[in-house]
Every structure is written in structure tokens, then in C-alpha cells.
Amino acid sequence: MNATIENQQLPSDTGPVSSARPQRFDLYGPIHKTIRVVMSDVLVRMGKTNFANESAATRITEDLQKLLALCDQHIQHEVKFVHPHLAERLPNALAKIDDGHVEHDRFVAELRSLSAGVTSAPTRELRALAGSTLYLHYSAFFADTLTHMVEEERVLQPLIHRFFTDQELLGIHGAILASIPPAENFEMVCTMIPSVNGPERADILGGVYAGAPPEAFQALVAAIRPRLDADEWTELLGLCPFLG
How far apart are CA 40 and CA 44, in angstroms? Predict the structure, then answer.
């Protein structure tokens, strides 16, 4: 897509969808929901893949690489923009999260190696065997990542809410958004909107509407409209009168 979202702002207290915003700013929820959806899709399709078929094996391993890049980017954002603040106020809680990230890095390296083994297998039989191994290892990675994200949401997020104001969290989130190139941000929002619930969609779109050029916002709406079913779109129209 050529359209970009530039200078995206986070929703303010005077934004058009303030009534839909959760009581406290959720640093993890929307991005974790997005990762869960993408991971689940890859898991289901990998289970259906006939790895003996070279083109099918190539497609799913390419999609796996995109997912792993998304996971890596998310962790890089946490390490660069979130963890320095946590280290000052919640050093004990951060130590366990860092251990989880070390395990994640090990999993990702192994999955990339197994993926390469699939695409380089010299025969259909060996490719099928490598694909089966990849699927089982990815299943373990999927379970480990789900557990890690839940721990961040159930344990770390309440602590963050105790020791940080929403304004501070908005500043951290704004720094993350500012670090993402506009075209990548556009693609991320297009993936995130179908992955979250109605009020969360309205909150995200409210921020884009407040800060993006009108043509970029319209391009985003056009891109996400086909990804929502009739009920989801109707709900969103009710929550976002500016979509009119």
C-alpha cells in the first residue's frame, strides 16, 4: 500500500471516542491480541500444509518469517522504550520478563534454522519430515509466547498501573509509534483493527483520525473495511461518528 499514516497521535481526553476508552491505558492489550491472531493463523495453516509440496512449504515458511519479524519488533520496542522505565521502578518484576525474552530468542533462532531446513530439503520425503518437526517446534513456541504475554498482562500490567500514570504510558506508547516507519505503521494498524474489539478499534481509529492527513485516514478506512464483517462495521460506525 502506498498510503501512509504520518504524525499519528494518541487519543486525547477531548477525542471523539473518549467514552470508548478503557479506564486505564493498556500498554499490552491491542498489540498482544494482534500477535495472538497472526500466530494462530500461522499455526492453523502450518498444520494444514503438505510440506512435500515445495510451493506450499515455501509459502508457509515465508509467512512464519514475517511473524517472527513481528515478534522480534515487538520485543525490541519493549526493550528500548518500556524496560528502561521499568528498570527504575520495577527492577524485580523486569528480571523475570527478561528471562522470558531470552527463551523467546532461543525459540526464534531454532525456528529460523528449522525453516531453512524445510526449504533446503533435497527430496519431498525429507521436506515433509522437516515440516513436521517445524510444526511441532512452532507449536511449542506458540504456547510459550502465549504464556509470556499473559504474564505481562496479568502480572506486569497491574504493577505498571500502580507505578506509572496514564500520561507516562501514553508518552512511552507515543515514542514506540514514532519509531515505526509510516508504511509499516499503516500495515500494523490494518492488521490490528480486525484483531481487537469494537471499543479498542474506535480508540485506535480516533487517534489516527486526530493526527493523520485526511487522505491517509480514508486510505486506512478503505483498507480495513473489507476485513470486518457487517456486524463489526455497524458497531464501529456507532462508536466512531466521524466515519459517517
Answer: 6
* Grid coordinates belonging to 228: 470486518
Q: What's the full length of the chain, in residues?
A: 244
| Residues 216, 2: Cα–Cα separation, whole Å | 10
% pLDDT > 90, the chain: 80
Is-contact 166 24, C-beta < 8 A?
Answer: yes
Could you tell me which CATH number the domain at 27-179 has? 1.20.120.520
What is the predicted pLDDT for the residue at 4? Answer: 36
What is the per-residue DSSP string for 82-117? IHHHHHHH-HHHHHHHHHHHHHHHHHHHHHHHHHHH
Q: Is 121 left (phi over 0), alpha (psi -120 to 50) or beta?
A: beta
CA–CA gap between residue 85 and residue 164 (Å, rounded): 9
Q: What is the pLDDT of residue 11?
A: 36
**Segment 200-235, tens digit of pLDDT:** 999 999 999 998 899 999 999 999 999 999 999 999
* pLDDT surpassing 80 at residue 9: no
Q: State how far the alpha carbon of 41 is from the alpha carbons of 45, 48, 147, 152, 213, in Å.
A: 6, 11, 18, 22, 32
Rounded to whole angstroms, the Cα distance separating 167 from 152 reads 20
